[in-house]
Write a structure and sequence with these properties.
Elements (H helix, E strand, L loop, with lengths): L5 E4 L15 H14 L3 E5 L5 H10 L8 E7 L11 H8 L4 E7 L2 H8 L3 H15 L5 E7 L1 H7 L1 H14 L3 E6 L9 H12 L8 E5 L6 H10 L4 E4 L13 H11 L13 H11 L17 E2 L2 H9 L17 E2 L7 H11 L8 H15 L8 H11 L8 E10 L8 E10 L2 E9 L2 H13 L10 E10 L8 E9 L4 E8 L2 H25 L1
Parallel strand pairs: 1-2, 1-8, 2-3, 3-4, 4-5, 5-6, 6-7, 7-8, 9-10
Antiparallel strand pairs: 11-12, 12-13, 14-15, 15-16
Helix pairs in contact: 1-2, 1-11, 5-7, 6-7, 12-13, 14-15, 16-17
Length: about 525
């Protein structure tokens, strides 16, 4: 029978060591509450002995009642020069007043001699004494055996001796760390077996854990193999954030444990939150979502090839290893120049458009699609533009306004002054001509402001719409400033988000195409809603 697994999150500590990944105290609190809601068992809040931000977090988190998760403070074994009761690091761990404490100690001789600059026996002493000092003050006491796998391969007897001293000091779980991330999954079973054999026959079983880094792209695999070999505690971070190449990714480990290995743990009952938690952490850290991330990425259940789409429509198991909704994700059918009739028909059904497979207009839409993509258009991230393309091809799309012309002026009056952008625009709405102007932070923003200003009187609902993301990609950069550019715009209102695209040699023209599609889609969406 599979043993329950403890899931230990270290996003707030190890995750924040990643390049460009920074969290304020307030951010950490919000992430903690979300992790608690997901059902994470332990949340490592930081290293109070080395970081004022961490100390402030521990003080603030005490104001909140977590429903399930236990907060853990992280630190190192005592400095050899200080008795345990006088060691500032250990005192800071106690001052955090957390129910759990995790300390790490050295396993690998090279770190003992080079980093700590003490003897091997001295290192054994500080491991045991540090844990023994902390044990009476906490409910949960974990020991991270830093560089365990490298240390074991270098000197097996000494690596096991460090674990013995951790157990003697009162460690309730020994977490074996692949700190450099160089261990392969094929090495894990033999080492785990030797550790288990070493502790075999003891009166009190010693739980083992795994903490893997991703420098060899094997952190998730190493974690899953370790658990299949008997580990009952797994550490990792949301989205795999961490120093260098990152930590073991909990958004992959959690569903694999629950859905593939049948393991029991609290978060397994909340798998449908996983995709939203993944996005939440990215948003808090102000980082883009990794669309290719397994389980929770936007592309994890996205189908592009016509053969795939046709098969998935009949039975999703043909090209999906799990049901996407189990992890809070969705199936997506992409539109591209590789698309077949199945993709178009699937999209038509999704858009509420009545289109039969034998309708010759399907071929017409496919031909338009392939021609536009040949020009540089991309509809995978711009489904709103594709829906408009389809409706125009079928003659069922309303025209809400007509452009009679626009002009954008950029002006810089002196070296020290910022650029100023002004757009003027002439459009026609229902036979009425409108001529207006607006300023903006750059020419595209000015053009957007002018268009909205001209339309608001006729379509006040545009007040609730905003441009949420704007991306420009140069196509064929070998042509230099004469290259095509593709603009992708993501817009949203209070109910939904949608993407639109434009392509031109002129960035303003490409932006105009995407802006107009974005506004047209909003007006069309509201019109269809009002008819229901």
């Amino acid at each position: 029978m599979n043993q329950p697994v403890t899931v230990y999150d270290t996003t707030l500590r190890d995750g924040t060591q990643a390049e460009n990944f920074n969290l304020s105290v307030e951010d950490k609190i919000r992430v903690s509450l979300k992790l608690d809601e997901l059902g994470i068992d332990f949340i490592e809040g930081g290293w109070p002995g080395s970081n004022p931000n961490a100390a402030a977090y521990f003080e603030e988190i005490r104001r909140y009642d977590l429903h399930h998760a236990q907060v853990s403070a992280f630190g190192s074994t005592r400095n050899f020069k200080h008795p345990a009761e006088q060691d500032p690091n250990l005192q800071a761990l106690l001052a955090a007043k957390t129910p759990a404490i995790t300390i790490f100690g050295k396993t690998w001789g090279i770190h003992v001699s080079e980093a700590l600059r003490i003897g091997l026996d001295d290192n054994l002493l500080i491991i045991e004494e540090s844990l023994r000092f902390l044990l009476p003050h906490v409910k949960y006491l974990f020991y991270d055996a830093e560089h365990f796998f490298d240390g074991f391969k270098d000197n097996q007897d000494y690596a096991l001796a460090t674990l013995d001293r951790a157990v003697a000091g009162g460690a309730q779980c020994l977490v074996l760390c692949d700190t450099n991330g160089g261990t392969l999954p094929t090495e894990i079973p033999a080492i785990m077996a030797q550790v288990q054999q070493h502790f075999k026959g003891r009166e009190q079983p010693v739980p083992l854990g795994i903490h893997a880094h991703n420098d060899s792209e094997t952190a998730v695999a190493n974690s899953l193999v370790a658990i299949s070999c008997g580990a009952t505690h797994v550490q990792g971070t949301i989205n795999g954030f961490g120093e260098r190449c990152g930590n073991a990714n909990l958004t992959s480990i959690i569903p694999a444990l629950a859905l593939k290995q049948g393991r029991a743990f609290t978060a397994s009952a909340h798998l449908d939150m996983l995709a939203s938690v993944s996005r939440f952490v990215n948003e808090i850290a102000n980082l883009p979502h990794n669309k290719y991330q397994p389980y929770v990425g936007a592309s994890a259940f996205a189908h592009k090839g016509g053969v795939h789409v046709s098969a998935v429509k009949r039975n999703p198991l043909t090209y999906e290893h799990i049901v996407p909704e189990k992890v809070g994700n969705i199936r997506r059918i992409l539109i591209s120049d590789q698309s077949g009739r199945s993709n178009v028909l699937h999209k038509a059904k999704k858009f509420g458009i009545d289109l039969e497979s034998h309708d010759p207009r399907v071929t017409s839409i496919l031909n338009q699609l392939k021609e536009l993509e040949n020009q540089g258009f991309q509809f995978e991230g711009a489904e709103a533009s594709f829906e408009l393309l389809m409706r125009r091809a079928l003659g069922i799309q309303s025209r809400y306004f007509e452009l009679h012309g626009f002009r954008v002026i950029n002006q810089k009056s002196s070296v020290d002054n910022l650029m100023q952008a002004e757009a003027t625009i002439r459009i026609e709405v229902g036979g009425e001509n409108v001529h207006t102007a607006a300023l903006g932070h750059g020419p595209v923003n000015a053009l957007d402001n002018a268009l909205r200003k001209a339309l608001l009187r006729f379509y006040p609902q545009l007040e609730e719409m905003r441009l949420d993301d704007y991306k420009v990609r140069v196509l064929g950069s070998e042509h230099g400033t004469g290259a095509l550019v593709r603009v992708l715009i993501e817009s949203c209102d209070q109910e939904s988000r949608w993407g639109t695209v434009g392509v031109s040699h002129d960035i303003l023209e490409a932006s105009w195409q995407a802006l107009v599609d974005g506004i047209t889609y909003k007006l069309m969406k509201d019109e269809l809603k009002s008819k229901k």
